[in-house]
Amino acid sequence: MSTAPLMTDEPTSSPRPAALDHEVVIIGSGFSGIGAAVALQEMGIQDFVILERESQLGGTWVQNDYPGLTVDMPFFIYSFPFEMKPDWSQVYPTGAEMKEYTLRCAEKHDLPRRVRCEATVVKSEYDADANVWRTQLEGGEVLVSRYLVSATGLLVIPKMPDIKGIDDFEGKLIHTARWDYDTDLTDKRVAVIGTGATAIQLIPAIADQVKQLDIYQRTAIWLLPKLNPQLSSGWKRALGTAPFLQTLARWLTNLFVEVVLGMGFIHYRRFPWIFDRIEKKLVDYIRHEVHDPETQEKLIPHYSFFCKRPSFSNVFYSSFNRPHVELVTEPIERVTANAIVAADGTQREIDALVCATGYNVFNRKCMPGYEVIGRNGKNLGEFWQKNRFQAYEGATVPGFPNFFLFMGPYSAAGASYFTMIDTQSKHMTRCLSEARKRGANCIEVKQAAHDHDFAKVQRLRQTTVAFGGNCAGSNSYYFDEHGDTPGLRPVTGFQHWLRSRSFPLQSYDFERRGDA
Ligand code: NAP
């Protein structure tokens, strides 16, 4: 049991039984963990701890940093609706600003003292007799809680490419998720593997500094121009004195995204022309920006828009107009001590190799990133691996009472990650409030409700571009090993928002169990 001080100075929803360390354990202190904590506080639950593997709280925007890092969503949808900030430097904030914002949100809600850093969860197990979760940390300590919230994010565990010889490379090897600012790339020969959302930000940021830049592209990305004006002091003042302007911008952006993605992505089969037109415009954009016709052709994706996550940049394409930047589309055959050898035998010598190769997404390594054992020894990771990713409304799974997921399978709909945080917070607090009302302490989704929801997402997804468009060859992390797209709930953000406020509470069993 934990020796951590119990937080008894705050009111809790109910007196904590002596056997509990905390009423709620939240795993992960990124935006999801912060959002979950704020939602708990709002309903009067103060007795929680947030466990964070890293040495600092904050998740993605605190851990991730690389040259050129900016948010690729406008701030008015990529921020908490309850924590609007009027003085961003530009519409798409820099990574440094987003880090500062994360930490400020945590401070404002008095979370730093509730976060335990360097607390890596190895396993969490439900004890049905006591109706508690026992969460085991690296080092052996066990924390006992009534409720468990998994807020471990989606893009967390970097994926290194599985390329022959890469471990024998003698130059500097970097994954963008672990950027090493002590490394000076000035006048170096650098190779970047990948052309995803990270690479398209990094490449223009380092292109001027390096002597040679080889970009290894396996699959081209759909890229939209980025309207990113600086925020003048007048605008900052206006947003500060009239916050409704930011709310209005949030609603209008959400509305625009809902209409375009709602019709274009979710109802692709009915409105294929929307994405067709977007694709044509984006191909024109490539041809306009890139001088060399051969490079233009290589940069044009050959799959439907949004089969793979698109991104935004005004400067990526023009990077290829510089004489020392080369786009290589020949597959990589192997890496040697000082070079990359392509399949056509061409060898390009390099001093540094940057892997902008993304993350493990919806696989056993990260979903969940620790062992979760429910009733009767049911192992969540094994269950998902055998039966495909599934969770009722993206939030709960039968056999795992009192366990709530953020960014669970089919939890994300709408314009931004913050929509998901809002919907999943609401789902959780509705369940907890209902339990409180009924004097219950054990909440479990019914199998029938869960199965019905899983069948529904499978039915609805048939109209999406993912299943109706041409996604072959997109190599998209939207698709898992089963061919499912658990990162995308095939409904609009508004529908999911509404549902999180109106799903039938009869979908759950509420009981009173254990010692309290
Ligand atoms: P990613 O989208 O998964 O892209 C990884 C890239 O590496 C792809 O081009 C991939 O090619 C390539 N790659 C991987 N393994 C390879 C191999 N063995 N050989 C050759 N190429 C290989 O990863 P990411 O760019 O880090 O972006 C991940 C997500 O992070 C984004 O979708 C976005 O959600 C988020 N992100 C957000 C921001 C922001 O500002 N908000 C910024 C950066 C990233 P294939 O496409 O062929 O697999």
General shape = globular
The share of residues in extended strands comes to 15-25%
Radius of gyration: 24 Å
Number of strands: 20
Low-confidence stretches: 1-12
Mean pLDDT: 94
General description of the model:
The chain contains 14 helices and 20 strands. It is of the alpha/beta class and 516 residues long. The chain has 2 domains: 22-157 and 361-511, FAD/NAD(P)-binding domain (3-Layer(bba) Sandwich), CATH 3.50.50.60; 166-222 and 269-303 and 308-355, FAD/NAD(P)-binding domain, CATH 3.50.50.60. The strands form 5 sheets. Strands 1, 2, 3, 4, 5, 6, 17 and 18 form an 8-stranded mixed β-sheet that branches. Strand 5 and strand 6 (142-150) form a beta hairpin. Helix 1 (31-42) runs parallel beside helix 11 and helix 11 runs parallel beside helix 14 (493-500). The longest helix is centred in the middle third of the chain and has 23 residues, at 244-266. It is globular, with a radius of gyration of 24 Å. The model is unreliable at 1-12 (pLDDT under 50). The structure holds NADP nicotinamide-adenine-dinucleotide phosphate. NADP nicotinamide-adenine-dinucleotide phosphate binds next to helix 4.
Lay out the secondary structure.
Layout: E1 22-27, H1 31-42, E2 48-51, H2 60-63, H3 95-108, E3 115-116, E4 121-127, E5 132-137, E6 142-150, E7 172-175, E8 189-193, H4 197-207, E9 212-216, E10 223-224, H5 233-241, H6 244-266, H7 272-289, H8 293-299, E11 311-312, H9 316-319, E12 325-328, E13 332-335, E14 339-342, E15 347-349, E16 352-355, E17 371-373, H10 380-387, E18 403-405, H11 417-438, E19 442-445, H12 447-460, H13 465-468, H14 493-500, E20 508-511
Parallel strand pairs: 1-2, 1-6, 2-3, 4-17, 6-18, 7-16, 8-9, 8-16, 9-12, 10-11
Antiparallel strand pairs: 4-5, 5-6, 13-14, 14-15, 19-20
Bound molecules: NADP nicotinamide-adenine-dinucleotide phosphate.
